[in-house]
Design goal:
By secondary structure, the protein is an alpha+beta fold. It is 27% helix and 27% strand. It has a five-stranded antiparallel beta sheet. It has a four-stranded mixed beta sheet with strand order 1-2-5-3. It has a three-stranded antiparallel beta sheet with strand order 17-18-19. The protein contains seven helices and 20 strands. The site of uridine-diphosphate-2(N-acetylglucosaminyl) butyric acid has 17 residues, from helix 6.
């Protein structure tokens, strides 16, 4: 088998490896064809793993929480490297918090609230991993994850590990200049010490507000399109009459029009067709071209 070398590497190091892995098991949309190989390494195995894949010219993608992601129905050729096992809280001292990139963002947000660290409250309710949130500069309510970053440790495809201070990273609205094929190993945040009861209260308020406005309990990839400067994509989609529109198993949410929900075994094909339909309607009505916020990968 083509991947014998990888299976040997993984069994030597006790890394979980799966073949023909349905990516729908790993995305918040519950969509995605099969990946040839999925591996779930720990941080210490990553540099050697990436070197090995490079030396064999095997393509790979890095996946964190799978939450801002549409994986096409033809799946992924090559290897998917998951960061979900790199999920330790490395240290908390005074207002400084260091966590691994594969940590779930909401676990970190609630831990900060419980121990009285302020600064993460506005990120309440955003799904995904710390690494994914940093790479895409996730945000809500005027907060962005970049706000409290001190530094991150990044593994590059040539196996170099570099510490990047916040000033060395270019963050912009829902994006950063960190390349797709790098892995965010650790992130350090500078937060403010505060009363846990106060931080918990503020975090809960943000979460409640989000629950009222966004379909957090349904299968989605968060906001599908970026907000055009000074405007809300959700409002434009709503005013173009798209709420409730459905193609196959995917529907425009009636709660927030910039969320597309997988209501009944939807496919990536359904999702893309609905994106086209919605953006055409917005273009017709407002002459505005919506740009996707979600990352789209894989074979159609
Ligand atoms: N609105 C409508 N109809 C809708 C949705 C919204 O009329 O279907 C109106 C609202 O009533 C409000 C305005 O549009 O007057 C703005 O809506 P909202 O406060 O929900 O914010 P948004 O601009 O739609 C942005 C982010 C969200 C983030 C919220 C809260 C983007 C694309 N969206 O949404 O981020 O949670 O603000 O801060 O940046 C994401 O990035 O995945 C995401 C969900």
């Amino acid at each position: 088998m083509v991947y014998n070398f990888l299976q040997d590497f993984c069994s030597e190091r006790e890394i979980e490896i799966r073949f023909n892995e349905p990516m729908s098991l790993h995305t918040s949309l519950r969509i995605g064809g099969v990946a040839e190989v999925a591996v779930f390494p720990q941080e210490e195995d990553l540099p050697a793993l990436i070197r090995l894949l490079k030396s064999k010219s095997i393509s790979y993608v890095i996946i964190g929480g799978g939450t801002n992601l549409l994986i096409l129905d033809g799946g992924i050729e090559g290897v998917v490297v998951f960061t979900k096992k790199m999920n330790n809280i490395i240290g908390v001292e005074d207002g400084n918090l260091i966590v691994q990139g594969g940590c779930n963002l909401q676990r970190v947000v609630s831990m900060c609230a419980d121990i009285g660290l302020s600064g993460m409250e506005g990120l309440a309710g955003i799904p995904g991993s710390i690494g994914g949130a940093i790479a895409g500069n996730s945000g809500s309510f005027g907060y962005e994850i970049k706000d409290n970053i001190d530094f991150i440790d990044v593994l590059y495809p040539d196996s170099a590990i570099k510490r990047l201070r916040k000033s060395e990273i270019r963050f912009s609205y829902r994006s950063s200049n960190l390349p797709d094929d790098c892995v965010i190993l650790n992130a350090s945040f500078s937060l403010k010490l505060d009363e846990p009861t106060r931080v918990i209260k503020v975090t809960k308020e943000y979460l409640n507000e989000k629950r009222l406005k966004q379909p957090l309990n349904q299968f989605s990839a968060g906001c599908v399109f970026k907000n055009p400067e000074g405007l809300s994509a959700g409002k434009l989609i709503d005013e173009a009459g798209c709420k409730g529109l459905r193609i196959g198993g995917i529907q425009v949410s009636r709660l927030h029009a910039n969320f597309f929900i997988n209501v009944d075994n939807g496919t990536a094909e359904d999702f893309l067709r609905l994106m086209d339909l919605v953006s055409n309607k917005v273009k017709e009505k407002f002459n505005i071209i919506l740009e996707p916020e979600i990352r789209i990968i894989g074979k159609s």
